[in-house]
Amino acid sequence: MRRRRIFIAGAAVAVVLLLTAGYLLFIAKPAPFPSDEQALIDELNTHSIGAAIEQVLDVFPVEERFQFVPFVTDEKDYGMSFWVWKDLRWQPAFITYSGEPRVWKVREGDPSTYRIVWNISPESSLSTLNC
Description:
Blueprint: H1 2-27, H2 37-47, E1 53-56, E2 60-63, E3 66-73, E4 78-86, E5 89-96, E6 102-105, E7 114-117
Antiparallel strand pairs: 1-3, 2-3, 3-4, 4-5, 6-7
C-alpha cells in the first residue's frame, strides 16, 4: 500500500513537471528581445565567423518568436541575422555577411510566413532586382 502511494505521488510530480516544461518551451510568450545594442553585437560575434560586427542597424519583429537584425561589419559589409526564440532564450538562427535579398521561410511549408529580407548599402547603385 505504501509503495502504491509513493508511486502515485511520484507520477503526479512527473506529470506536473512535464506540463510545466511543455508550457515553458512551447506555449509561454518569449522574453522581450534584447534592446542593448552591445549585447546583440557580442552575441552575434560569438556565433559568426569572419569580420567582426560593428553596428546593429535596427531590429525588425517578424513574428512573436522571430526577429530580423541587419548589421554592418568592421569591413563595412552589410549583413543580416535571423533570430529565433528557442530553448527559453533568443538565439541567432542564421547570420550572413551578404545583405543581398533572400527569402526567410519563417515557418517551412507555410508561404504566408515567408519574408523577403535584405540589407544593402545605401551607397549601392542598385535600382532593380532580377529574379
